[in-house]
Amino acid sequence: MVQELNHDLAFLSQKAERATENDEQVIDDLLDTLRTHLDSCVGMAANMIGVNKSIIVFCKGKKQLAMVNPVIVKKVGPYFAEETCLSVPGSKKTVRYNEIEVVYLDRDFVRKREKFSGFTAQIIQHEIDHTNGILI
Fold this sequence. Notes:
The chain has helices spanning 9-12, 24-36, 118-131, and strands spanning 43-45, 55-60, 63-84, 91-105, 111-117. The chain is α+β, with helices and mostly antiparallel strands. It is built from three helices and five strands; from the N terminus they run ααβββββα.
């Protein structure tokens, strides 16, 4: 179900709690909400819909994918980027990495370890920042 976007900076600044299989509906809601905003958004974190759980969704080509409890375990090739966010006004410069490796659970709660690069890696880094209470 599509959810309202959360703009409460105090809530968005909290570190997310670990998600469990009981949070499957949050994944569905987050994907539905992302799909509603595809004209202006390529990724979302659960706190953007008012749920303080470590869940992100993002676009990889034409697909929208979910990561549960994602952790970046490797970063290569730092660069500066300027980013915006649906939940936070304005834009901000930040350091991103061209290549990352992430350990996470997929939407079926199967453990994965995967490498990402380019714009997809940038999106994932932005959304994982959300789970850590880091706002752009």
